[in-house]
Amino acid sequence: MASSNDNKSTEGGFQDGNSDPNDEETNELCPGFKDVDAFVKYGLGAVLSATKASAGLPQAGDDYDFYRSFPGFQEFCESQGDKLLHLMSQIMQHHGCRSHMRDRNKLTGLEERFDLVVDSNDTILERAGILLDEADGVNRSQQPVMPAGFQPPKIVVSSWNRKGSGSGSRPETFRLLHAKNVARPQLKFKEKVDNSNTPFIPKIFIKPNATKPLPSYFTNKQIRKERPEDLDVPAALADFIHQQRTQEHVEDMFAHPYQYELDHFTTPENLLSKPEVQMYKPMAETKCSFIDTLEDLVALNEKLCKLSEFAVDLEHHSYRSFLGLTCLMQISTREEDFIIDTLELRSEMYILNEAFTDPATVKVFHGADSDIEWLQKDFGLYVVNLFDTHQASRALNLARHSLDHLLKHFCNVDSDKRYQLADWRIRPLPDEMVQYARTDTHYLLYIYDSMRAQLLEFHHGQPGLLQSVWNKSKDISLKKYLKPIFTEESYLELQRKQKKSFNTQQLTAFRLLFAWRDKLARQEDESTGYVLPTHMMSKISEELPKEPQGIIACCNPVPPLVRQQVNELHLLVQQAREMPLLKVSKDGCQQWAYVLSLETKSDQTSLSVAHMKASRIIESFENPFRMVRGDSLKGGGKKRERVASEVGESTPKPSKKLMKSADKPQKTEPPSQESFTPFDYSQSDLSVFAGTKSKSNTQFDPNRQAPDFKKKKSNFGAGNRSMSYMAGKSERGFRHNWPKR
Ligand code: AMP
Ligand code: MN
Ligand code: ZN
Q1: Ligand 1 binding pocket includes 489 (Cβ within 6 Å)
Q2: From 34, 391, 539, 542, which residue has the greatest number of CB atoms within 10 Å?
Q3: Atom of ligand 1 nearest to the CA of 314
Q4: Distances (CA, A) of 731 to 201, 272, 363, 665
Q5: Which ligand has the nearest atom to the CA of 736?
Q6: Ligand 1 atom having least distance to the Cα of 324
Q7: Is 373's C-beta closer than 6 angstroms to any atom of ligand 1?
Q8: Does this model's pTM top 0.70?
Q9: What does the pLDDT look like over 400-425, one tens digit per residue?
């Protein structure tokens, strides 16, 4: 205010805002300045002196009232105030924000004006953030790379995963979601995706190349068939029934189906000695087959079973699905390339287990960590005898370990990784994408030969280094897919990553929004990032907008589901605002102890009981925090454990090819839910706070993948509704550690 008086620079600074934004575009970026830096320096100086000057104004309560009694001072304040409000309105208009700053009839309260300024600042800063990101090469809107001229089909549907109750009597209601959608492949899946908040159970129901037979849980249709979700009985009873049925099988249900075979696998001698490096065939002279029928897949499997090695890669899509979808499998032999449409053959892919688990055939992958998980998640496929060229690259200490680098280094091939993040759901697959996908496996067997040769040379013919690569690869094939599990504490882990200290209201909002987006993402089969990106969720929690419009203002671009459910979100934010506001303490524990004791007190029955509860809560909160913060426990839930009883167990050794395709049993139903029922959060024990230490030792812990049965027999309730699971990694995406490419 005063600055416009004594500081010309401020006026100059505002001039741009003052002029009509339409004729602002001159040739010079910042008229009168030699470059952007000079302009920024000048602008910062102006802002600084304006801030100083305004801080120097008499404060309300001290001299202000005295000065205010002079009409001259009053007039001056009014005119300067008007001028400022006008300038602010113009800036806000320029940015397309609500801008009734000066209109005193419409808005009276200072508070509302303040909110307007806050909203506008957010919008402007968010836009600046996006532009900076774009300049940095990050594209937040995540538009997939499309080949030039490609027009995705305009099929737009949602709520696909809802149970078609009344079987056909009522038409499905599809809602329009997004204009640029690709057809949702999930619609055509024979088995619906299981997004329920229950741990992943292997999809396997037939086990080729077994030296230890598949446990009866997987072969017995009766045990698997009915999940609690399907039973038309109260939840608790359904849980109980399911628990009784599965009790004896818990150990098997979460073990790696090929743990025994992998534990007993030793790399054949010939793979530890000097290889004959076989040159790849030029791509142009190589036959490439697109496999999208069962017949072709069976033929491919038979072909692969005769080989001593083949290369594999997968392409995956994770934005428009909760658990992600494996869209493509590329396989290269020494002679041919194959592209399998795994969206089409999703339910049949399991037949490849015969080749994939054959210990006599090497499967070469590059950076197989994610692939191993995706194979289990989508197809129930496992790999025995894996060679990971990414691990080999590490052992060889190459400059970089990406596939592009290996292609350049060993084959002098320039690859274009532009399509890596393409939308692999697109069908028919454009030629450019097929070409890209082929390149990922076409040269891999030659690279495998070359790397083995080098690994031996490195150690003067000693197999130690090469053996270490085989061992590391085996460890990767022992990885188990873990489903993201929502727990009452999952949000805390994510919130901590935001590097923002939240007060109790903000933290409550974050918790409620986190639960909302998890529930919706599972229901609609969308990624949580699609439903509500974390940075927006964090922003809404920080701002706690008073009105639905304020929630929209926190999001740019506004996610379709946020727009659709903005009133729902608004209620959640209101609920958070009703929390007692407490100063942020550096120690989250302490802060939560406050909140918890307050929540407990709010339903007072007797104070002493409340006190007891509060202290119990505080005790119970020690663990989750240690778990999240303590380094020793990092990823503890994910630790690969071997089931002790399996090792050294004497089992009858069936002949190697126990289940050749010829004597495969008739296809039993795979272990998936026929009907998906979204998790009923309303029944969840939303306040572990209440102190009723809910049967903690009978709770199933989904993050413990190989339970320690020696110590305690665990009761399993797959449909466990109380959700008092232990904290664990659940924010999907964070689990992925993309190998450098
Ligand atoms: P690739 O093995 O390089 O073909 O990658 C396989 C799949 O991993 C791709 O289809 C993507 O879905 C995913 N992916 C690869 N790199 C990244 C990355 N940097 N960020 C996110 N997803 C990735
Ligand atoms: Mn890959
Ligand atoms: Zn690939």
Answers
A1: no
A2: 391
A3: 6
A4: 19, 40, 31, 38
A5: 1
A6: 12
A7: no
A8: no
A9: 999 999 999 999 999 888 888 899 99
